Amino acid sequence: MAKHEQLVDEGSMAFPYILVGIGAILCVLAAMESYLQLSDSPFSLLELSHKYGYLLKYEKAVQPNKGLWHPLAWIGSAFFIIMMLYSVRKHLSFMQDVGPLRYWLDTHMFLGVVATVFVTVHTTYKVGGLVSISFWSMILVATSGIVGRYIYIQIPRNIQGRELQIDQIQEIMEDINGEIKKYAGDDQKILRYFELISGPKQTERRNVFRIIFLMFLNDFGNLGRTYRIRKAIYANPELPSGVKKRLFRLIKEKGELIRSSNFLTASQKLLHYWHVFHKPFAFIMFLIMFIHIAVYMVFKAGG
User: Fold this and answer.
1) What is the CA angle 241-242-244, rounded to 5?
2) pLDDT tens for residues 200-233?
3) Do 166 and 261 form a contact (C-beta atoms < 8 A)?
4) What's 96's DSSP letter?
């Protein structure tokens, strides 16, 4: 196996976009229905469903334990629990080969964001007491999770999900460079394409916020460079279509590894700081969520 093929399997590039699309639809529908019901609008999606014989047992409501807001709370809580399977997949050896790690991370993010929106609309924006601690912890966990995912994917990993060290990254880049030369032949212009995608060096001495800003700025710039590289390669009439596709993928992989190696130490430090911030709030969120559910079940049984 070529060294660059030992990188973590990214799976289908369409998968995250599919999840984003589904998540956006669910979140928009939940937020829209929340606005329509709480503003006492004469029209709502719930009333529309009643006309077709669906969800008849639910009525418009402005209280968290009434109407649609109650089942949305259960769905959101279930999503929070299910999304933790990502941690199981990452840490248990017998699950190392169960699907690409990126699929699990993207699904983890999808469930977390949708669950946050569902639980938020469930509250009908009435948050107080002990539950408010869980709610604001949830908001911090969801927000930091988006940043954490971005930092996480900056660090190259092998197919087992383990972080690669700088010497391993250099070996993989040399392996990719060999394949690029094989496909490009003597075309020096193509051989120089990968140099266009890079990242700033010596980021370790910069502060945390400056590093994150540089990451975003660098990735934004690389989007344009990647587009121009792809356009130039596919415009080359001397290259077969299969070679063009392979060559572009190799150049993109090497460019990303160059960027990652420049940010490696800084990304590892950022990820450590992120865990220190993220995990305590996640623990608080789950603890109070389970207490909240337990109290509800006790009072329900008692009632």
Assistant:
1) 65
2) 555 555 666 677 777 777 777 777 777 777 777 7
3) yes
4) T
Spatial distance between the Cα atoms of 233 and 253, rounded to a whole number of angstroms: 15
Half-sphere exposure of 265 (CA within 13 A, CB side): 11
In whole angstroms, what is the distance from residue 120 CA to residue 30 CA? Answer: 10
Q: Tens digits of per-residue pLDDT, 261-299?
A: 766 777 777 778 888 888 888 888 999 889 888 888 887
Backbone angles phi, psi at 38, to 5 degrees: -75, -20
| CA dist 294 → 133, 246, 267 (Å) | 16, 55, 39
Give the helix ranges, DSSP H, for the chain. Answer: 15-38, 45-51, 69-82, 85-91, 101-122, 129-152, 166-184, 188-191, 208-234, 241-302
Give phi and psi for 128, each to the nearest 5: -160, 170
Q: With CA atoms as reference, report the closest residue to 232 among 186, 175, 192.
A: 192
Query: Token pair of 92, please?
Result: 């248990």
pTM above 0.85, yes or no: no
> Cβ distance 157 to 114 under 8 Å?
no
Closest CA to 226 of 186, 198, 262: 198
Burial class (CB in 10 A: 0-12, 13-18, 19+), 89: buried
Q: What is the CA radius of gyration of the chain?
A: 24
